[in-house]
């Protein structure tokens, strides 16, 4: 994306960006970014900056519960709903409710 373009990432990209942030990443680049944009992002992270400040749930008025943060962190690690349920001692249905809540909150705010 050039400086003149406005890119509206998909809901999945938004959630992945937030999950990356929640997991402790300093930056997130989408696969459709140009090489120049990716290089700029890497340089910014190397300077101690974040490239996705707007992806922060709090920056967009979203408040995730502690449990939702745990779920999104496990999602960012690639865990499936049944794996998340087992690791957090929850039912698969409860995990699905948490993921649905996360999607709703992030889609409405990002």
Please supply descriptive tags for the structure shown above.
110 residues; elongated; mainly alpha; disordered N terminus; 5 helices
What do these coordinates show?
It is built from five helices and no strands. With 110 residues, the chain is mostly helical. Mean pLDDT is 73; it is low at 1-9 and 53-57. The chain is 55% helix and 0% strand.
Number of strands: 0
Report the helical percentage.
Answer: 55-70%
Mean pLDDT: 73
Tell me the overall shape. elongated
Oligomer: single chain
Please give the largest β-sheet. none
- pLDDT below 50 for ≥5 consecutive residues: which ranges? 1-9, 53-57
Roughly how many Å is the radius of gyration?
15 Å
* Count of alpha and pi helical runs: 5
Strand content: under 5%
Secondary-structure content class: mainly alpha
- State the separation between the terminal residues, measured CA to CA: 18 Å
| Helix-strand string | HHHHH
